[in-house]
Amino acid sequence: MDLINTIKERRSVRNFSEKNISEDILNHLLESVRWSPSWANTQCWEIIIIKDSTIRENLKNVISPKNPATKSIISAPLLFAVCGKKNSAGFYKDIAVTQLGDWMMFDLGIAVQSLCLAAHSLGLGTVIVGSFDHAAAGKILQVPSGYETIVLVPAGYPEKIPSPPKRREIIEFVHHDVF
Length: 179
Ligand SMILES: Cc1cc2nc3c(=O)[nH]c(=O)nc-3n(C[C@H](O)[C@H](O)[C@H](O)COP(=O)(O)O)c2cc1C
Fold this sequence. Notes:
There is one protein chain. The protein has a single domain, classed as 3-Layer(aba) Sandwich (NADH Oxidase), CATH 3.40.109. A four-stranded antiparallel beta sheet has the order 1-2-6-5, sandwiched between helices. Strands 3-4 form a two-stranded antiparallel sheet. By secondary structure, the chain is of the alpha+beta class. A hairpin with a 2-residue loop joins strand 3 and strand 4 (95-96). The protein contains seven helices and six strands; from the N terminus they run H-H-E-H-H-E-E-E-H-E-H-E-H. Helix 2 runs antiparallel to helix 5 (104-121). The protein binds flavin mononucleotide. Residues 11-12, 67-69, 127-131, 164-165 line the site of flavin mononucleotide.
């Protein structure tokens, strides 16, 4: 699959078959995170692979009400929690380099997109889950202070691939010379 089609055809998948994911494929997914770019190569990501059914149930209970991805926290063969180290990306000697402060969210966004695209290219589906009680999830996952739980990513072989939600036309977001 060429990259542009991988980007265009990746969908948020919330229904998975029971087929398990091999260690080899899991390793490819983790390599895609590993080779993602980051601020000054900070690599501020930490990935938790969650297999324990009680932990999954506890996480499901802190997902925001009516979140369409709730069921997938339990049903997906693979569940990642993507955590980030605070105050490292965008900092030099503990001082923010730019007015934007912490670049952790930016770096994790890239790493998670790498993960989702790699998964899609290998025939897997993923959904990025950002709407949940982050403090409660951090407690459940025993995330240490100085780190934040940012997203959960259920992954597996898709049972159903949703149709693509509408995108803005290029002309609607491209500006020439000035905003
Ligand atoms: C940062 C972020 C957080 C998201 N959080 C959720 C979520 O909590 N629940 C969910 O069902 N989908 C979530 N999504 C998936 C988006 O709804 C989805 O990417 C968007 O509707 C476009 O659809 P597509 O991914 O199929 O192209 C999230 C996506 C991103 C990038």
